[in-house]
Amino acid sequence: MVNSMNNGPSAIGVGFSCADVYAKLAKFYPTGNGVDWGVHLSRMGIPVSILSVVGTDKYGKLMKEALMEEGIDISHLHEKEGETCKMMMDIKNGVDRVHLEEIPGVMEEFDLTEEDKEYIKHFQYMHTDLFGKILEYLPEFRKAGVKVVMDFSIYSDDPEYCKEAYFTNVDYVFLSYKQEDDYIINHMKKIKALGPQIVTVTLGDKGSISYDGNTFYREGIVKAEVVNTVGAGDSYIAGFTYGIINGYSIPECMKLGAQISAQVVSKFEPY
After folding, report:
1. Which burial class, exposed, middle or buried, applies to 237 when counting CB atoms under 10 A from its CB (0-12, 13-18, 19+)?
2. Do the Cβ atoms of 18 and 133 come closer than 8 Å?
3. Helix or strand or coil: residue 181?
4. Strand ranges in the chain using DSSP code E only, listed in sequence order
């Protein structure tokens, strides 16, 4: 069991997971925001567990095998009868990723058991996202002392997905936007006032901004030949989280995030 009883810090990715399937290329990758984040942290030496669900099809087996090869604890990657959640993918113009179809599979009915919730409370850091189906449990995990890292993607001001209570129960908020402007600066201030320790916005090729309630920090990108932007945000968040775990300053966290993101966009794989 990988948890805070180990000597070093520990992290767990909880919620949405799926297989990205490139049928024409005969390739697949286990993915999901927390999975990508966890793979990067594991490669950097942080003990990581993934808590989600896969099906009894071949992709469930392949996902388990791939994550085990990354040194990730899959003791709570549940298996249920049915299909693993899949994103059917294609390549356009040689580089552009196209989402053809989502097959929800067993992920559609995913929920945490009481034992799952107790397991999560052993970890120092937890990553989740809006579609991980665990948002109602965030106050419980925060109360237990778990530091919550959450990716709000492009939905941080979408009332269909986001509620103020979510921001209140997250320590490190990440979101995506197109550029720095008055709107995003004010939006970051509003989110920070709800309680997170740090609010960070990734701006694609325009870099990133972080806000701790006192200072806005800005970091550019690390130049790279772009092959694939899938996983760029997750890799940035992983680098930033690694910095937080190890006591880095906010600018140092941002720089590491940019470095790892540049490595990801320069290759086909999402990590």
Report:
1. buried
2. no
3. coil
4. 11-14, 18-22, 27-31, 48-55, 77-80, 86-92, 96-103, 125-129, 147-151, 172-176, 198-202, 208-211, 216-219
Question: Measured in Å, how far apart are the chain's first and last C-alpha atoms?
Answer: 24
Query: Structure pTM?
Result: 0.91
Q: What's the rounded Cα separation, in Å, for the pair 161 and 103? A: 20
177: three-class secondary structure by DSSP:
coil
Say if CB 85 and CB 19 are below 8 A apart: yes
Q: Which of 62, 32, 25 is nearest to 50 (CA)?
A: 32
Instruction: Profile the chain (271 residues) by mean pLDDT over runs of 10 residues.
Output: 52 95 88 94 97 97 96 97 94 71 94 97 96 93 97 88 87 96 97 97 95 97 76 90 98 97 78 74
Tally of CB atoms within 10 A around 102: 12
